[in-house]
Automatic annotation (TrEMBL), chain A:
Domain Spore germination protein N-terminal: 22-189
GO biological-process terms attached to the record: spore germination
This protein's GO CC annotations: membrane
Family (UniProt): Belongs to the GerABKC lipoprotein family.
Protein name per UniProt: Spore germination protein
Automatic annotation (TrEMBL), chain B:
Classification via Pfam families: Spore_permease
Taxon lineage: Bacteria, Bacillati, Bacillota, Bacilli, Bacillales
Protein name: Spore germination protein
Classification via InterPro entries: Spore_GerAB (IPR004761)
Presence of keyword Transmembrane: yes
Domain of life of the native organism: Bacteria
GO cellular component terms listed in the entry, alphabetical order: membrane
Species: Brevibacillus panacihumi W25
Subcellular location: Membrane
Swiss-Prot/TrEMBL keywords: Germination, Membrane, Transmembrane, Transmembrane helix, Transport
From TrEMBL, chain C:
Residue intervals passing through the bilayer: 306-328, 398-417, 429-457
High-level lineage: Bacteria, Bacillati, Bacillota, Bacilli, Bacillales
GO cellular component terms, A-Z: membrane
Protein name: Spore germination protein
Source organism per UniProt: Brevibacillus panacihumi W25
InterPro entries: Spore_Ger, UPF0353/GerABKA_families
Amino acid sequence: MKACIRILLLVMVTTCLSGCMDRIDLEDTTITLMAGIDLNEKNEILFYLSSPVFSKEAKKKSEEFGVKADTFREARVRLDEVVTGITLPGKIQVYILGKRFLKHPEWFRYLDVIYRDARLTVNSRMVVYDGDVHELFHFNPKDKPRLALHLTKLIDTAARRNVTVKTKAQDLHRQILEKGITPILTEIKKDNQVVKVMGIALLSGKGTYVKLIEPPESTLLLLLLDGKQGDVAMSFLLPEHQERGKIIKSKVSIVIKDVSNKIETSYQDGRFHFTVRQKLKISITERLFPFDMEKGYKQMEREIEEELRKSYAKLIEKCQKSATDPFGFGMHARAYEYEEWKKVKDNWTKEFTKASVQIIPEVSIKGNGVVK
Amino acid sequence: MNKSVPPKLTVLQYIFLIHGTQVGIGVLSMPRELAEAAGTDGWISLLIGGGAAVIASLLIISVMKRYPNHTIVELLPLFLGKWVGRAAIVLIILYCLLACITVIGNTVGILNIWILTQTPGYLIVFLFVIPTYVILQKGIHVLGRYSELIFYLTLWMPVVLTITLSDAHWLNLLPVVKEGWGPIISGARLTVYSFLGFELAFFAYPFLHNKKYAALGIVAANTWSLLVFLHVTILCFTYFSPDEITKYTWPTLVLLKGIEYRFLERVDITFLSFYLLVLSTTIFPYVYFTIFSSSHLLKKWDPRKQLKVFLILLVAAFWLYTPTFMDLRRLTELWSQAGLVFGYAVPLLISGPIWLYHRSAKGRKI
Amino acid sequence: MRIRGWMKRKKAFVTERISPSAPLAQNRMISNRTSENIEEITNIFTLTPDLVIRSFTSNYMEGQVTLVYLDGLVDKNSINNNVLRPLMAPPEQGGISIFGLLSVSQISPVYDFRTVEDKILQGSSLLFIEGQREAYALDTNGWPQRAIEDPQLETSLKGAHQGFVETALQNIALIRRYIPNRELKIKEIWVGQRGVCKVSVMFVEDIVDPDLLRILEDRITAITVDAVLNTGELEEMIEDNPYSPFPQFYTTERPDTAASHLLQGRIGIIVDRSPSVLIAPSTFVSFFQSVDDYSTRWLVSSFIRLLRFLAMVVATFLPALYIALISFNYELIPLDLILTVGESRERVPFPPLIEAVMMELTLEMLREAGIRLPSPIGQTVGIVGGIVIGQAVVQAGIVSNVMVIVVAFTAISSFIFPNYDMAAAIRLVRFAMMGLASMFGIIGIVIGFMILIGHLISLESLGAPYASPFAPVRFQDLKDTFLRLPLWLMKNRPTSVLSTQSRRQGKNWRKEDQQ
C-alpha cells in the first residue's frame, strides 16, 4: 500500500515538474535545410534560409526567406516572425557563402554559432557561390527536387568524382585554425538556369577568398591532398603521338586505381624542400591513337608521368603565387622540421611561397582495357 | 545496504566497479586539457599518469591487505581513536560528496548544453536519482553487477569512436616530445582526476570475494581505463588540428559530431545519451560510498532512509542553485586536488607506518 | 480513512482464518452404530443434494452396511462393479475381510468425522459397517476430466503435443514419463483453509539445491488463504518481489519443458486443479527459451534466439523512440526520412504521445478481444481491427502512417515471445517508456533503460539472481542465452540454478573419435 502511494506520488511529481520544456513536435517546426550568407554593396550582411514545406495545400515545395541582420542567431529570430513553424537549424545541409562575403576578412566569425551551439550540425557542406546568393535562393528549377536537396546531392557526387572538394563545417574549422594548411571550399555558380559545380575555391591563410581552381587541376589537388577517394578519371594529351593534319587529338584517358603519396620534408638553404613521390596505379580506359602497348607500355608510363608532372608544377606554382597551401605541406614541415617550423608558423603561407616543391609521379599501368 | 548477509563482489565486478568509476566526465574533456598542457604529446602524460595511478592503487591494496575484513571507515576509528576517527570519516564523506556533486553537476551541465537545453538542471538530477535509488538500495553486490553489465553494454562505444580514424592526420602527433618533458609532466598532473576511482579500493577491497586477485584486479582496472583514455586522446589528437583542439570544451563529443550514417545522423547525441550509462557507473559508487560512510557515523539510522534523504537533498540543492560552468570548473579542480590527497598522498603516507608497524609486530612474535 | 478501514478488515479476515474452525473443535469419533453415524453425516452435509447415502445388507456382514459418497465426484462404474457387487453377491467363502473383498485399489480405515468429511469432499466413498468403530474410505474418485491435449499457449512445432491437465496426479505422471528415475521426488503440501488444494513440489533430489527447496517449502507452508484456485495465485503468494511487472517464476503447460527444467536442477510446483506447472527459480533469459530451440538445428535456433532479443528491444523501446525522435531529437533522423515523416505528420492533429498511446491502446484492445472471442471470430476481429482500422485511421488523417508502421512492428515483435507472462510485462514497460520519452526525449529513454536494468538485476527468484547470466555475468551460461550453442558444448548445468551436481553430459560421440 505504502509503495502504491509512493509510486503515485512519484508519478505526480514527475508530471507536475516536467513542462516538456525541450519538446518541439516535428509538425510545429520549420526545418532549415539550406542557409546562405552574403554581403551586399552597402556592406550589410544578408542571411537566407530555405525550408521544406510539408503542407499538401501549399503549391511550392519549399519556402525561402532572406533578412538583413548582424548575426546568424538574430537572423533566425527575425525569420521566426515570418515562417510558419519554429525554425530549427539542426538539419542544415548546405551553407551558401557569397563570394563577396568571403572577401570580408572577418567572415569566419559569423559562423561562430555553428560551432558553439551543440544542436547545429557540423556536417553541413560549405559552398562558395559565385554571384548573388539571393538569386540562388529564389531559383526554383522545375525538373529538380527541392533546391537544398539537389545541391546536397550535386556536391556529394561531384566530390565523389573528385571534381571538387566536399568541405564540411567541421573540416573548415580545422582548416581555418590549422596553421599548416589553407582552407578549400566547393565553388558553384548558376549558369543559364543550371547550378554548376565550378571547382575548388582556394582561401588564404586568413580565410579570405583567393581564387578558383577548375577541373582537372582540382582533381590533381585532391589526389595530392587525400590520395585516392572515390572515382578518379583523367585524360591527357600526349603531344608526341599527335598525327599531323588530323583533327583527332592524341588523347589517352585513365582511371586511377590507387595512389600513394610519400612526402619527404627537409630544410636547406633557408627554405623548405618538399619532394612528393606519388605512386599511381592506373588503368587505361580510352586511347585515341595507335600504339603498341605490349612493346611500349614503359614509354607510355613515362609520357603520362611527364604530363602529370607538368600539370602538378603548374598547380603548385599557382598556389605559391597566390600564397596558399591547400596541400597541407605546413603540417609536414611541423612534423619533420619542428624547430624551423616554429619560427615561421604564423607566416606559413608566406614561407610556403619560397619553398621548393617537387612532385615526382611514378605511374604503373595495371590494365589496358578489353582491346589491345 | 543490507548488512546481515555480507555481500560479495566477484573479481570482474570489482575490476569493473573501479574501472567504471574511473571512466566518466574526464573522457569528454581530457583531450583538450592534455593538449593545453602538453600539446600533442599529451598521450605521454597519460602514460605517466596511468603509471602513477597504478602505483597508488597498489599501495592502497598493500595497506588494505592487512585488514581484509574492514573498510576504511571501519579502520579509521581503530587507528585514530573514536573522535579523530569520526572526524576523518567526515572528511571522507565530504570527499565522496564532492566527487558525486562534481560528476552530477558536470553531467547536468553537458546535457543542458548538448541535448536538453531548456530543461532545468534539477529535473535532470531528479530523473537521475530514480535509477540511483533503485540500484543502490540493494547494496554493493547489485552495484557490482550493474557496473559489470554496463561495461559490456557500452563496449560498442569505443568502436564508434574508431570510425573517425578515416579522417585521422597522424602527422599531428609528430614530432614526439616536441617541447621537452616539462609540459608533459605538467600534463600528467591533469590526468589525476580522470584516474580517480581507484581510491574506492579503500571501500571495495573487503567486499572482494577472492582477495588473491585484488592487486591484479586493480592493475587491470587501471590499465583498461588507461587504454580507454589513450584511445580517445589519440583519436582526438589525430582528428583535430593541434591549433584547433584547445577551442573545444568537449573534443570527444565534437569528434562524434562529424560521424554520419545513412540511418543515423548526429551520432554525438546518441553517444552522449548512452554515455549517461557510463557516467552512472561513476556517480553510483560515489553516492553509495557516501551513504556507506555516513551510515557508520549515524548507525541508528536505516541506510536506505539515509540514501533517500540524501537523494532528495541532492535534487533540492540543484533546485536551489544550478552551478554555472565556472562553478563546475572550480569544483572539478577542487575534486582533483582532494583526489590527489585522498588517492595518492594518503596511501603514500599511511603505507609506510603500517608496514613498519607490522614488521615490528612480526619481529616481536619471533 | 476508507483505505485504513479496508486494511483493517483485511487483517481481521486473516486472523479469523487462522483460528481453528468450529467443526474441528468437536471432532467426533465414529461410533459403532450406523444410524448415529448417518445422523452425524447428515448434520455435517446439510443442503447437499448430491450426497448419496446407500444402505443395504451385505451377505458378509451382520447388520447394515452404508455407503456414502458425493455424486459426480466418484466413478459410478467403480462403485457399482467393485464395491456394491462384491458386497451384495451371494457368499462364496466366509471370513474374508473387507480388504480382500472389494476390488478397489485403495482402502483406508477412518476413525473420525473430520477425516470422513475431507474424504467425501475429495471424492472417496465411505463405507460404514454396523458394529464397527471404523469406516472405510474407498478410492473411487472419478471427477469430470479433460483429455490430454496440445498446449494452448506454448505451442511447438517439433516438441511433444501433450499438455498438462487439471489433475495433479496426471501431471505428475506426465513429468515422470520424461524422468523415470527414483531421484525424482515429490513433497506434498496442503494449501488453503476452505478449498484445500494439494501442492506437489517436484524436484530431482540429487541435483537440486537443498537451500532453495527449503526456502520454497517455507514460503508455501506459510500461505493461509481460503483457497488457491490456480497456479497464478500461488505464484503471487510466494514470489520475491510482488511490485515488479516481471514474472519471477516460469509457468509452463508443457511436460517436456517442465522436465527439462527439473533436470537442470530447478523445482517444479504442481497445483492440483491447474493445468500449468510453476518452475522456480527462474531467470529472465529462460522466458526467451522454448523447447523448439533444442529440437531444431543450433544455428537456426541461435538465429531465432537473437530475433527474440531483438524483438524484446523493439517491443520495449520502438514507440518510445518514435516519440523521442519526433518531439525532441529530430536531428537524429536521416534527412530523407525526416522529409517523409514530416509529410506524413503534417495532417495529424495530435501530439506524438497521444497518437502513440491511442494506437497502442487500440492494439491492446484488439489483442484482448481476440483472446476472449471464439477463435474463428477472434481472427476476424484481428483482421478487421488491424487492416481496416489501420487503413482508415491514416486516411482520415488521425494518425500518421509512420506511426501505424511503428505500432504494427511493435505488435509483431511482442508476439514473438514464447512466454505470455513476459510478453505482458514488456507491454506494460513499453507504456512507461513512452511516458518517459514524451517528457525527456532520448535522455528519458536512456534513464528508463537504466531503471529497467537496475530493476532486473536487483530482482531475485527464490533468492537466486534473476538477471543471471548477465548480472552477475556467468560466461558458462552464455552458451545458452543469445545463442543456442550445440548441445555437446553444454556439458554442465546452468550455474545460475545453483544445482549441486554441475556435470550433465559425459563424452558423446564425435566425428573426430572415429579414427
